[in-house]
Fold:
Amino acid sequence: MSQSFIPISEPSIGSREEELVLAAVRSGWVSSIGEYIDRLESVFANFCSVKHAIAVSNGTTALHLALASLGIGRGDEVIVPDLTFVATANAVAYLGATPVLADVEPDTLCISPSSIAKNISTRTKAVIPVHLYGHPADMDEIQNIATTSGIKVVEDAAEAHGAEYKSRRVGGLPTALSLVSMETK
Structure:
């Protein structure tokens, strides 16, 4: 019996996508700045119902940038789910901080708020809930724990574009530093 590979998603590239890629290449601006980057940021911010969006090269870069902006560094701990792409923990380690693994919920595969609470120490500076496979994490409970504990929340919605938590798009939830990536990790 042969097994077939079943992808999580498949690209849909048609003539319009080819036309836009060619136009971007011909413009000479394929990264950092230019008409298409500005348009992407504007459209995506609107899609997530947030004021600003900043395009970066990938989800790892987004996480690294967000953690660095919070001053995360050597000696700090950041709680991450034990089921996620390795970039979540790597972004923490790149800054010299320690990723602390928390269990996930069996129904959503997202980080467990009770496991977050159990893993908080005096060195914990942040938690990264990852909205996995379109399932939002329990952000109300996570935010309550973070507020009570004085830690930051870095919301990672790279694998949940368009998913909603209580009628708000993930990646645009209030009180969290929200991160989304246009590239699947």
